[in-house]
Each structure stands twice: as C-alpha cells, then as structure tokens.
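Researcher: Let's do a round of design. I'm pasting the structure tokens now; please hold your answer until I've finished.
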C-alpha cells in the first residue's frame, strides 16, 4: 500500500538534522563519504544532490553517489542486501576439457 499524499514523503528527522548541521559547520563541498544512512525507508532529498553516502545493508555499509535521477527514490532501492552466488549445473556443456 502506498503512502498517503497528504502526509508527504517519509524522511528520518535524525538524518535531516545531520545534513543541516553538517552544511552549517563546513559550508563547502567535500568528496569523502560523510553521510551514513541507517534509515533505508527514507526518501532521498534534493539536499544530498551530488553527494556520496554510505547506506547500511544490515551488515555493512555500501557506497552510493546521489545524482538527479536518484532524488525522490528510497535509499533502500540503491543497494542490494543479498549476495548473488552462481552455481554451475552438473550436466553442463561448459565443462573444462
């Protein structure tokens, strides 16, 4: 079920405070990975445009770069939480000779 339009997009208050305080304290652009995002269900704001963030997958943090196409999506859609493993079938034609 979708979120009601009158409520607006969800954004974690702690993350918002961190972004505002960080901009006020530095006042300049940095290229390091400054923001650690724990709230994967938060919507990506325009304030993080052209910023690098670390998004928590439940085990580790994965790197992501925020551009115009990603603003409005959720942080959880940017990184996968599951590791893909490929298993070769036994009767495969790709056997080594």
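Researcher: That's everything. Go ahead.
Model: Designed sequence:
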């Amino acid at each position: 079920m979708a979120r009601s339009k009158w409520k607006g997009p969800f954004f974690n208050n702690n993350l918002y405070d961190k972004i505002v305080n960080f901009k006020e304290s530095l006042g300049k652009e940095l290229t390091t990975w400054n923001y650690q995002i724990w709230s994967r269900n938060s919507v990506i704001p325009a304030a993080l445009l052209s910023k690098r963030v670390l998004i928590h997958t439940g085990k580790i943090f994965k790197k992501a770069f925020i551009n115009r196409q990603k603003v409005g999506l959720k942080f959880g859609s940017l990184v996968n939480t599951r590791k893909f493993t490929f298993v070769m079938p036994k009767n495969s034609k790709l056997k080594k000779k």
